[in-house]
Amino acid sequence: MKKLLGKRIRYIRKMRGLTQEQLSEMVALEPASLSSIEVGRAFPSLVTLERLAKALDVEPVNFFEFTEEKTIEEKRASIVDNINKLSDSQIENLYNYLKIFIA
C-alpha cells in the first residue's frame, strides 16, 4: 500500500507541475522525506497527508484512488496485445473506425 500511495502522490505532484523540492517546501517536509514517501519506503502521517492534499489541491481520499498510471510505451504495448486478440472482422471494424480519426 505504501508504494501505491507514494506513486499516486508523485503522479498528482507531477500533474501539478511541482518538483519534490517545491512540494516539500510547501508542506514543511524535507525533500528526502517526500522522496521516501513517493517511492514507498515511508508512510506519511495523517498531518502530512492533509498538508500534501492541501498543497496539491485535492481531497486526501484522492491519494487512495489507485488507478494504474501507464507510460506511453506501456499503453502502446497494451494496445498491440489487445489488437492481436481480435478476430479478423473486429480488426476490419477497428481499422475503419481509426481511419476516421487518423486521416
Quick one: biggest sheet? none
CATH architecture group name of the largest domain: Orthogonal Bundle
In helices, the fraction of residues equals 55-70%
Averaged pLDDT, please? Answer: 91
Q: What structural class do you assign from the helix and strand content?
A: mainly alpha
Q: For this structure, what is the CATH homologous superfamily of the largest domain?
A: lambda repressor-like DNA-binding domains
* SS element count, helices: 6
Write down the overall geometry: elongated
CATH class of the largest domain, please?
Mainly Alpha
Count of beta strands: 0
Question: Which fold does the CATH topology of the largest domain refer to?
Answer: 434 Repressor (Amino-terminal Domain)
For the terminal residues, how far apart are their CA atoms?
44 Å
Unreliable stretches = none
Output the radius of gyration: 19 Å
Strand content: under 5%
Helix/strand order, N-terminal first: HHHHHH
Task: Please indicate the count of domains.
Answer: 2
